[in-house]
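so ive been stuck on this for like two days lol. basically i have the seq below and the ligand is S-adenosylmethionine, smiles is in there too. i just want the complex predicted, nothing fancy, no docking runs or whatever. if the output looks off dont worry ill sanity check it later, just need somthing to start from for the group meeting slides
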Amino acid sequence: MGATGAAGRAAPAGADARAVNPAATQPLAAADARRIAEAFLPEFPLGNRYDYYYVRGKLGSDPLYPGVLAALRGSDAPLLDLGCGLGLLAHALRCDGQTQAYRGVDNDSAKIARARRAADTSGLTHTRFDVIDLANTVPEHRGSVAILDVLQYLDADAQRALLVNAAAMLMPGALLVIRSALDDDSGRARATRVTDRLANWIGWMRFRPRCWPTREGLRETLEATGLQAEFAPLYANTPFNNWLIVAKRPAS
Ligand SMILES: C[S@@+](CC[C@H](N)C(=O)[O-])C[C@H]1O[C@@H](n2cnc3c(N)ncnc32)[C@H](O)[C@@H]1O
């Protein structure tokens, strides 16, 4: 896989056709990023603004959400966001005019509390958040599923179990949308591993990364559940080896 690709350039060898949709490989517009981030401002003027700056920076630099929004557009299946963090996908969906029911789950109760508060502040409808540890609990769901930047926090067996469970949740026409760094021998993969470990050391991520999936391993697991998967690079100008994987049941 090419290690130096960026948005707007040709997709690396091995990328599927979906890879080359330039509109979906750029971050959110700065004004949208700022507006969403404002929901994370502290209640009081001298309160902690960390989440505000983090959200603004993340949305303004990472092509994650436009890529996921493009994949989900046109489907009204309820969406379960596994490892939702602060629930930014819910804000991005509503900003994009997507109104499907949204449920975010995460095992970090502090993040879930902040996600609930920001969703309330923004008046997001049909949105709920719950504390769930995906290592030992499978939420009930029928619809689409998002797993964004989460797989590396589970070991290989737990990743496989999560993907098998997520595949079983898909109702007809629904999608499994994954963003994950892929493990390979590229410089991007090395930058990803270092950054994920750093996020844990500085305390932003409570849990240490355990295992970065490979493209072949993911494809094998998804195909074993009967899903067809498309892989597309989703790193824009970031140095990371992030890919968007969109899986669905083939039409019978
Ligand atoms: C890098 S963050 C991604 C957050 C969100 N998906 C996003 O894209 O903004 C990874 C998230 O996975 C969550 N996570 C890690 N292990 C988990 C587990 N066993 N169960 C539930 N959530 C988990 C973390 O708490 C964290 O919020």
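The chain has one domain: 17-248. Residues 83-85, 88, 106-108, 111, 133-135, 148-150, 153, 207 surround S-adenosylmethionine (CB under 6 Å).
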